[in-house]
Amino acid sequence: MYGKCNHPADSSSSCKRLGFLQKNNSLEERSRIVTSFKERAAKNLQLSCDNVGGEARFRRTETDFSNLFARGRSRPCSSCSRSPLTDPPRCWTSTTPTSSSRAWRASTWSSPTSPSPWSRSWWTVRTKEGFLLLSSHLLLLFLFCFAFGSRFTYEIAPVFVLMEQLTLKKMREIVGWPEGEGDGIFSPGGAISNMYSVMIARYKYFPEVKTKGMAAAPRLVLFTSEHSHYSIKKASAALGFGTENLILLKTDERGRVIPADLEAKVIEAKQKGYVPMFVNATAGTTVYGAFDPINEIADICEKYNMWLHVDGAWGGGLLMSRKHRHKLNGVERANSVTWNPHKMMGVPLQCSAILVRERGLLQGCNSMCAGYLFQQDKQYDVAYDTGDKAIQCGRHVDIFKFWLMWKAKGTVGFEQHIDKCLDLSAYLYNKIKNREGYEMVFNGEPQHTNVCFWYLPPSLRGLPDGEERRERLHKVAPKIKAMMMESGTTMVGYQPQGEKVNFFRMVISNPAATRSDIDFLIEEIERFGNDL
Amino acid sequence: MYGKCNHPADSSSSCKRLGFLQKNNSLEERSRIVTSFKERAAKNLQLSCDNVGGEARFRRTETDFSNLFARGRSRPCSSCSRSPLTDPPRCWTSTTPTSSSRAWRASTWSSPTSPSPWSRSWWTVRTKEGFLLLSSHLLLLFLFCFAFGSRFTYEIAPVFVLMEQLTLKKMREIVGWPEGEGDGIFSPGGAISNMYSVMIARYKYFPEVKTKGMAAAPRLVLFTSEHSHYSIKKASAALGFGTENLILLKTDERGRVIPADLEAKVIEAKQKGYVPMFVNATAGTTVYGAFDPINEIADICEKYNMWLHVDGAWGGGLLMSRKHRHKLNGVERANSVTWNPHKMMGVPLQCSAILVRERGLLQGCNSMCAGYLFQQDKQYDVAYDTGDKAIQCGRHVDIFKFWLMWKAKGTVGFEQHIDKCLDLSAYLYNKIKNREGYEMVFNGEPQHTNVCFWYLPPSLRGLPDGEERRERLHKVAPKIKAMMMESGTTMVGYQPQGEKVNFFRMVISNPAATRSDIDFLIEEIERFGNDL
Q1: Among A275, A448, B57, B381, which one has the highest count of C-beta atoms within 10 angstroms of its own C-beta?
Q2: Which residues of A touch B391 (CB under 8 A)?
Q3: Which family does it belong to (chains A, B) (predicted)?
Q4: What is the share, in percent, of chain B residues with pLDDT greater than 70?
């Protein structure tokens, strides 16, 4: 339908539309242009903005910020800066999802492993399709993403819908699902992504809960590690399972789930008449950075017909590293995966994806088919209206910053980022594992960048193991942290875990950190802690 | 504890710390400064950055963007641009929540009704407390907000925690709760805010559901208007109630709930043995912009001991207008209120607040007391660690942009914004109500800015009311919209509603729109629709 203008090489006729329509254009001029639009529409229905050849389009800039904001939350066209009418705005260009999508697939991921040639395209994000997505300035790109935030239908945010779709596919490919098949959505954080996974699992096994409520299901039980993130517990409370029906699994000394404990607890639950439905395996626990053995857990899930979710909010980023991705071996057997680029990959918060292996579940689980938003008689393929998959309505644009980073760094850039952080944490581990005054919380090199350790001030080093030592050691980390915060030089977190008294947890996710920063941290701990 | 340095007038001694610590400072220099920090700490534990007098601080600028990003997601101090260590960063200044909070209360809302004197403070957001929150450039403020996004504990985002707390209090005051008492949180959109309201209501009446699941409660039913937003339905599905237990209430011709229908359905549900628990009253429905009669609904809620939620996602903004806030009369009787500044008030998406009248419920409902985040032995009042109230963990900073806008426009600015939009919609209504070829979907001036109408091409005007006319009229709006999208001149949404075939719904939320924009819209509709 829009064939002619959509081809990037098509530099024909209607360049006039790329001229700026200034705010102070006379009404006559505006009217003339509008008439011209209409005549073209009547002739061939082939209208889009991106049909000048060469590099001309890259020189167009948007400099009037007030306009940018005033236009509302939908996509403006850089060819027009007329005064806004409403939200959505008066100024438009149009393409169909399918043709856009095809071009995107080619242009966006043509060289996914290495950084894109930003010298040419960094300042201007374009689709080779019917629209320019501004701009001449990095700050504007961020502002754009910041200011224009709603995604639930293709027509409101076509570029972002396509970006999300293609990026999710890429992520599913990296997870290891054939051809990147499946489904997914960006959500406002890992906790919500994990909540999605429980909802989807419930819909898969007991779809009638959607209409009839939990009363329609037997007593369902969920399983997760005692070291897992509290969001699984929050989900079990919120979704009506109840936290008592979330069964905590024992872990080994390193914080990894013991598969035999899972199987024993599944059998026990079944004997009680409960229905084991969902298992969360954590890839990168919050405190120890442990990776649960996904393959062994997947065996048990298959045996007992349970949903396997992998919470890779923290550890998912390691999938980008050829050196470290083996820690997630088996992730391709998961039914759903949480992966937060806003954690290990350094994308600014919020940017979290829930990936689902089976298509249709996300839609089936959440859709309510609100007629006022998701009309079925639209003039394009409404499968691109992704909003009804979400528990939200409008969604913040989280994809754009991630997509930009991916284009800028390439997959190889993320790999280097991650490898560097893990190298640094190994450096820290090796530096303190035999150093006087330090004790590691668990043995062996950490799987992730979490280095967990106690610092013992000299006054505690001679004490025998016992209650007094424990009590005094419990207070060391909070005191040092408070002094750090007061002095303003550094900060490192601490917490207890199970029987273990307060210990430091140093987590490295910033690749700009250096070995001398690590050295400095250790100096500071000793400086503050020496006299405690 | 930090008294000396916290007072803005205290321009004593330690100005040295405001000198830039450049990346290329020598190690010796760094060490010297750190030692100096520590000595001060040992002497009096009075350390903060904001202790130079006069306007000197306003001239300090941050120009190295790469630094700004490299520092991670925690708050940097403008006095230091050293290389980052980790997330959280090395560079800190510290205050206690209570003292900060006090100063904020005074400084932030000292003149809430009128715009702040930005000439002095626009470019630099400061707290009169121990930290500067940059910056010399509006874009940086946005970037800052965009890039540093995590809020779950005070220590990670003290300024944003306080901003959120005080802004929520202000919103509760405007709702009409005495002294702004109550609770609340910013969430990723109105759908999630509405979901919170259902969760909190359930926790209030059946707290045991949190641990035991929905099996612990009787069959609970919820009520909402047949015109309400679909998020209430999504919440009833997600939270385990089941959509069948959400009972839809009849509305009058204008789309407002008929209170007698609510009471009849409550009685009917009780007769069946169900437990009516929750009523949603919509303040500004999505399609008609109708305001349910809150006072009459509140009477019924009190009589039958049900939770009253007001979904003011769309209409909440009218509370800022002395002329229009009467449409929400009774809102102060609600147990909870959803209010999205990102809709009618023009704050960029996402910015949605759930306000709760009773303190403690939000925390009780959602807290899981994760020891690794919410340690109780921190050196400050952990009541400021708001994260455990949320179903999320880290949260995007949604408050900053809203706070900035409020400071810039003042309450009076929002009032003008809203009054102008409503004036414009009244202009549109008056223009078309008797115009040839137009039919209004409901009679009388719209309550909100939603103007709902049919356009009848000349070929339909002579047709008698009947199936043929309905069928043809149903196709008019989609066709005109498609032509608008193709021509790129304007766009206006349409939908059916109940028995009513597709009609246009013009919604105005952008105060930059003008009467001539409205005129243009009408021209365009007629231009495209004339020959259909």
Answers
A1: A448
A2: 191-192, 195, 231, 234-235, 238
A3: Belongs to the group II decarboxylase family.
A4: 68
